[in-house]
């Protein structure tokens, strides 16, 4: 058994796309799948940009807001999962702080495993 840290002190500050958050990488597979842990502190933001590949955001703590190419923000909190298709514009922000796992891969299809939120 081995134990690893995904806390924000093991992460790297990201400023691309006018962002302000800490990314803690978790794993990369041979199938070009990237999994990371994002730590948005108070006022943190993952800046508005296009998804390079399909992307799944799993909120594990805190709360925040997400949007796509519309100007409307939707509240997300622990237990929510948000999926963006390749090339879809999106942004995530938090007033109080948010921690999320992000999974990026050309082969993502979350509807195979998770029901839609009502």
Automatic annotation (TrEMBL):
Domain spans labelled Cupin type-2: 38-96
Leader sequence segment: none
Transmembrane segments: none
Protein name, UniProt field: Cupin type-2 domain-containing protein
Upper lineage: Bacteria, Bacillati, Bacillota, Bacilli, Bacillales
């Amino acid at each position: 058994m081995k134990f690893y840290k995904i806390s924000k002190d093991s992460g790297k500050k990201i400023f691309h796309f006018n962002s302000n958050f800490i990314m803690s990488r978790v794993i990369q597979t041979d199938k070009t799948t990237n999994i990371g842990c994002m730590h948005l502190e108070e006022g943190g933001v993952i800046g508005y940009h296009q998804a390079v590949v399909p992307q799944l955001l799993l909120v594990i703590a805190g709360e925040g807001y997400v949007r796509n190419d519309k100007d409307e923000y939707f509240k997300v909190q622990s237990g929510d999962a948000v999926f963006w298709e390749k090339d879809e514009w999106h942004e995530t922000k938090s007033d109080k702080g948010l921690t999320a796992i992000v999974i990026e891969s050309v082969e993502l299809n979350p509807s195979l495993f998770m029901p839609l939120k009502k």
